[in-house]
Amino acid sequence: MDRIERSDRADQLVNAVQRTVRAVPMGRGRDVLHGRWLGHPVHPLMVQLPLGSWMSAAVLDCLPGQQRAARALVGVGLVAALPAALAGWTDWAELRHPQMRVGLVHAAANAAGVSLYAASFAARTRGRFGRGRLWGLAGLTAVSVGGALGGHMAFRQASGANHAEHIPDVVGPGWHRIGELSDFPVGVPVRGRLEDESVVVVREEAGTVHVLADRCSHMGGPLSEGEIVAGCIRCPWHGSAFRLSDGWNVTGPATAPQPAFETRITAGHVDARFRPLYATGASKADEAEGER
């Protein structure tokens, strides 16, 4: 796995496929395939149907008189594999190169598995159930290898993970001073520090100051190097847009919102504290303290 991650031999192919996937006109469908509506990538959920169907078919192949049922399950798996693959390719195109290298092998193993299951279905349809079982066993082996590679991407390489999930646990409670108000020019994202974490600070013309975690929840991109668009900040790496007011992920590929902070201005200084996503605002006592 480490050798695959480090090897750049296939990078020309990786880059070409990435450009092709990104060029497909999907519109809002791209965010649907990323799983923004779900709150995490949808691809791992979608692969359960083909894998479950094929594993169930393998069980039925061991029982007498279940040839037709096993063939039906192989067919269901083939149909379900297409949308699962589409979601997987959509996520893959927004990863880092070490992840994409493993992902390309993952896709190749799964494509081999689909081809073998197609051969299995064809053999079963012609009544050659013994041959169909053998093709199915080979297909199950291939998709199992693909699954192992997918697990490596998810748990070793953190593909699809929320890269800002730790913020609420490492930022202490209460207010924290970020800097002087004059340190933050109007309309320009500026990197600041809140304890040991980087944050992006955006000051509006009306005087409102927004503070979000700087590392993008998608792949850890620096939001402070992004641009402000229609009340959102857009990540410079993959284009995820987060609402400045509360960190909500307006567009993907990010599937998780960005940790946001309440702010106050006291004596020309900007203070911030972590705000849970469900919070509706500061208490009246805090507001009064901020006014003082």
Topology:
Layout: H1 2-6, H2 11-23, H3 29-34, H4 43-46, H5 48-60, H6 67-92, H7 97-125, H8 129-156, H9 167-170, E1 176-180, E2 190-194, E3 197-203, E4 209-213, E5 227-229, E6 232-234, E7 241-243, E8 249-251, E9 260-266, E10 269-275, H10 284-291
Antiparallel strand pairs: 1-10, 2-3, 3-4, 4-9, 5-6, 6-7, 7-8, 9-10
Key structural traits:
10 strands; 292 residues; four-stranded antiparallel β-sheet; 47% helix; elongated; Rieske Iron-sulfur Protein
Give your account of this protein's structure.
This protein is α+β, with helices and mostly antiparallel strands. The chain has 2 domains: 2-156; 167-291, Rieske Iron-sulfur Protein (3-layer Sandwich), CATH 2.102.10. Helices cover 47% and strands 16% of the residues. The chain is built from 10 helices and 10 strands. The chain is elongated and about 85 Å long.
